[in-house]
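[Amino acid chain]
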Amino acid sequence: MKEIELASRLSVVRPSATVAVAQRARELKASGVDVLSFSVGEPDFDTPAHILDAAAAAMRAGATRYTAARGLPELREAICEASARRRSGHRHDPSEVVVSVGAKHVLFNLALALYEPGDEVIIPSPYWVSYPEQVRLAGAEPVIAAAGVEEDFKLRPETLRAAITGRTKALILCSPSNPTGAAYSPAELRALADVAAEHDFWIIVDEIYAELVYGGFEQRSMLEVAPELRDRILIVDGVSKTYAMTGWRIGWVLGPARVMKALDTIQSQSTTNPATVAQHAAIAALRGPQDCVEEMRAAFEARRSILVQGLEAIDGVSARMPEGAFYAFASVQGLVGRSAGSTVLEDDLAVAGYLLEEARTAVVPGSAFGAPGFVRISYAASEAQIREGLARIAAAVAKLG
């Protein structure tokens, strides 16, 4: 019997490299191997107790049924309140919010709502692995704009201007960035906004890490620095990183009501609402005490210094001090071409594989993010684990010929 073919759209999409690395690390752990994983973008803290208590109370009170597809009215109001506090009083109406099953789901729904075959979407590189794949799934074409280490991993106005064509439908910015931790200053955002203002396309700003910045960095939203572009700015956010709630799967987007209506339609025919109890937990996160956020942020800041300083001390490795998120994006170009026994480390994928097998330390190759020669290392791990990981990496590198 002839095998029935799968949809051709799958041919343009690659599986997530971060998930693949994490799976290999889990397999090694399951077989009894002591693996330190620095590959997944997930806080190692537990969800704060007051959020857990609110979720339990909501379940006992009967919060186990459907809600509106776009989310509970109370949650959307809480999102508007929190956003106004964080973005200099720029307030959205609940009609300008859609709550989805995590920020990734938001971005996927935006791809379906905004992109068509023939459209181009500008994505600075290094980029989060799902940005270009979601664009391709929608039938559009990702246009990769170089924003390498020479540019501090940030898109320059002249690079943006050169990437724009008559087919440009959107620009996706992530600040602070996954995978690099780089964040745009207000002046840098304003310069990009000036270029965007000359053209007509959507500006999608992923601000999921906006509460996690360090060293006194002045974090600002594109909406704050370019309020005149409000009608085409779409802000993606959520509770995952800020409140250690990755598994709760609550993300949202703030933007023009007509786009929210389109997203509501899409979501009503796919997932319907995010889990009801998780929505109640998100309300507690946004409206409850915020000292937990500062405690986690301060811990990440301390870990950042330990990791970057430790990487800089390893021969053949270098790392820029990130402004935010919880990743160091380290150059391993000094290791490429060196040998492990009879095996030559030909690229960053081989380096990551060597560190996993020899150092029992899981990192993600930069090629997954459009940046060959680098690896992403998460510092969402304890200081003890980071120090042990650094020692293992240093020992493995010392063995290279």
